[in-house]
Amino acid sequence: MLETEEDYQRYGIVPARDAEFVRERPAAEVVARGLAARPSDPRAAFLDELERLRDAPGIELRLDPRLEVLLPALPIDMFQAPDSTRALPAHLGSDLSQQLAAQLRGGAPDFRLVNLEAVSHARAHGAADAVRVLSSLIEAKPGDTRVAVDVAYSALAWGEPALAASALEPSARALLGRAHLAHAYALGLAAQGRDVEAIVYFEAAQQRLGAYVEGVEARELLALDYRRFLETLASGDGPLRVFAERRAAETSYSSYQGAALVVALQWTTPGTDVDLMITGPDGATCDYRGCAISGARMGLDATEGYGPEGFALHDAAPGEYRISTRYFSGARHRDDEAARALVTIYRDVGGPRAAVERHALTLERVGALADVATVNISPTSAPSETAAAGGETALEVVR
Q1: What pLDDT sits at residue 86?
Q2: Whose CA, among 129, 181, 184, 267, lies 20 to 30 Å from 341?
Q3: Would you list the domain boundaries of the chain?
């Protein structure tokens, strides 16, 4: 997006003429030009980009030396994603409500209305269709990273991580500067089968987190997903197998190993404080002020934006554990106070019944309190259950 109206005038961009612009440029011609512009050697292009990122301000990417040695030897096709993975499904105006269709024609859709319609589509037609509806927000504000992250969080929560990567794709380079963004993109890349890129973004998330969050516990919290991905690669016979085996062995999550329940919270707004709160079966609570739940601890309290915040429960007593979030404080320089949050619930970490689920929610204003989910911890002979408390959610069983 350009900064001012003068910029739009300087480049001859008139939003009202968008439809005319599209009609004058047949889709087949646009696609053909895009395909022709792709590098003939995607591996060389990828390595060149990594080299530029070494000195990029706010990124300064550093990869594992073993990975740097391995990358030039990998097959070229590992650096070229299938075309089908790169685009979000376009929305169709004919199946949207009249109110939303009118807002889209005006170029200013309301997030709340789009989200409500997306939830309705998720129930009626499935998660992919819901993401298709949400993609109208990106179409209305192309280049707005925060909007893309909002859509990506919903896609992750609805069990469509590949579409989360598609939402974030246009902002891929900018994502490397923030751990929570790089991590979300890596999850999507892994789902798309873009293993090399997924490793780079998982590694970047670990590196950038260390730049603004002290201690190893935050990195171990994000490492829960990275370690699972590495173990998947290590179980195969592909060219990344040996690297994945060794990197997985080094990627520690000892703070969370064996936990019956781990909850991670991340959010989209800088300079803000969103808190995680857990209430146990007996009414005891655990938050940034202290933890009265037996066998539990709240290890992280991020007060300057993004997170992560983390809760771990070992030696869990059976019963219901309620997960909530509170928007504790906002950033003074923001007019829009709403914060988009992603809550990830890990169960039986490292165990035979390990499972992961993600919830996305919007906290509209400072002081807002929202219940996310209730997790029922059953005796060891029976699986646990989770009941969502609204918002968006999906369950992924770890194999």
Answers
A1: 55
A2: 129
A3: 5-37, 44-255, 261-397
